[in-house]
Amino acid sequence: MRASNLYAPTLRNTPAEAEIVSHQLMYRAGMIRKVAGGMYTFLPLGWRVIRKMMPILQPGELWQESGRWAAYGAEMMRMKDRHGRDFCLGPTHEEMITDLVRDELHSYKQLPLMLYQIQDKFRDERRPRFGLMRSREFIMKDLYSFDKDPEGMMVSYQKMYDAYSKIYTRMGLEYRPVEADSGAIGGGHSHEFTVLADAGESNIAYCSQCDYAASDEKAELKPEMMPAEDALPLEKVSTPGTNTIESLCDFLKIPAEKTIKAVAYQTDTDELVLVFIRGDHDVNEVKVLNQVEGALELRMADEDVIQAAGGCPGFMGPIGIKKGTHVFVDASVMNVQNGVTGANEKDVHYKNVNPQRDFDKDAIVISDFRMVKEGDPCPHCGAPMKMTRGIEAGQVFALGTKYSAAMGATFLDEQGKEQPLYMGCYGIGVGRTMAAAIEQNNDKDGIVWPRAIAPFEVVVAVVNAKKDDQLAYGESIYKECQEAGIDTLLDDRKERAGVKFKDCDLIGYPLRVTIGPKAVEGDTIEIKVRKTGEVLTCQRGEYLAKVKELLKTL
């Protein structure tokens, strides 16, 4: 560590509120900063002593300052103190870190700056499940970057992107960095580090030819073209009982791609949102939500709300909807020729719909509102995309000035002009990564840990620890491994050998060194590789070199 890279803002004067020596010196030495009465943030020097950095409890006024107190939604665990002041258990720390630096960073000469922490987080998950995969309390490694301009921010972003790539590679995990939606954190650019696993909750689209990959929430889709046709006159047709795409296609004898279906939502602020998409496509609700400023959630719209806007549930179309309603039309819909959509009358549809001609373009928003599916063309090279599942284990965000502008975190540039800080934030879900590693590395006998994150690299299993000669031999091997810098466990339990071997496989230690009668009588040591099941034997004088050689491959 270089002092030039250490964030330790020292003070010459003692704060008036610091009454005892420890409080005075920790404040002056740049180890702590006050957040609110009885709450402190530990700075890097304090972290090295106390091994914690930031408080879990956060004052609501910081979140109100950033505008996220109401915007974060139901996942935030809120509470009040005895004086009625708002607090929350930190679901994330953007506000806290911005508050920390805004009184300390004053000049471009102090930039760039990166600060990290490892801390508990709390989110009131709607459906906590899958053990550590989705829990209400979890451990996260956070890092925040501060730069003077967008170019510097993206340099910091790339550094962390590269660092995360190295971390997941070193852990021996099969992963993909994928373009992702920024969600409640915000910012305009983000990547998720997704560990590929069938148990994952994330759907990943990736190109079969180039390196493009994105979560299904974020995947870009270009409008699909349709075969050219001569435009026919728009007309209403009676379509009794055809309130689903399937029944409509059967009744009119047309393919689903010739239909335009409607999905109606209400936001948490009760705004009506009508989305029109091709009948063979599905709506991407994240893309829809991102188009409605200030909205946090979507739910299916009530029938009376739809009718008040001029729509008819089951037979809805964009023609005739009252002005002022959010009407979103997927870009592929605009290429439909002589298609079919609802006429906003029960049991009636329009046919020969040509959206470029028939839709009021001033009253609608045309964009990408659909969900990616297997075989869709890559937005970069056009090759077919494939789908897989994964576990979001980490994410990086370019935040821009979202928090610094709202909270007044500024610095003076080279011309002495006040500018907002450009921020990035980066997180690894520690417990979730642990769970993801197990999801990806297991067999019928248990866990198969990658060496880098195994609880121990080697287990020395004594076959019969009740026999003093075997136990003594095992202890000597254990000490030799430790002295060689190998992270080693000695299984000296007085259990049957079968129980020990089963436990070794279940827990998943990369290598098992077995000490039994053969070792005591003939200096023959058995080594089992957990990943492959391979068993090797070697003499006492050779085993340590063999263990080191095998560990390099794991």
Quick take:
The chain has 554 residues and is α+β, with helices and mostly antiparallel strands. 26% of the residues lie in helices and 30% in strands.
Question: What does this protein look like?
Answer:
A hairpin with a 5-residue loop joins strand 10 (202-207) and strand 11. Mean pLDDT is 89; it is low at 49-54. The protein folds into 3 domains: 99-218 and 389-436, Bira Bifunctional Protein, Domain 2 (BirA Bifunctional Protein, domain 2, 2-Layer Sandwich); 235-367, YbaK protein; 449-552, Anticodon-binding domain (Rossmann fold). It has 554 residues and is of the alpha+beta class. The radius of gyration is 30 Å and the shape is globular.
Characteristic key phrases:
YbaK protein, BirA Bifunctional Protein, domain 2, 16 helices, Rossmann fold, alpha+beta, globular, 30% strand, 3 domains, eight-stranded antiparallel beta sheet, 554 residues, 26% helix, eight-stranded mixed beta sheet
How confident overall, as mean pLDDT? 89
Q: Hey, roughly how much beta strand do the residues contain? A: 25-35%
Q: Report the C-alpha radius of gyration, rounded.
A: 30 Å
Q: How many separate domains?
A: 3
End-to-end Cα distance, whole Å, is 30 Å
Q: What is the overall shape?
A: globular
Query: What is the CATH C-level name of the largest domain?
Result: Alpha Beta
CATH fold descriptor of the largest domain: BirA Bifunctional Protein, domain 2
Q: Work out the helix count.
A: 16
CATH superfamily of the largest domain: Bira Bifunctional Protein, Domain 2
What is the structural class? alpha+beta
Which spans of ≥5 residues are poorly predicted at pLDDT below 50? 49-54
Largest sheet: 8 strands, antiparallel
State the CATH architecture of the largest domain: 2-Layer Sandwich
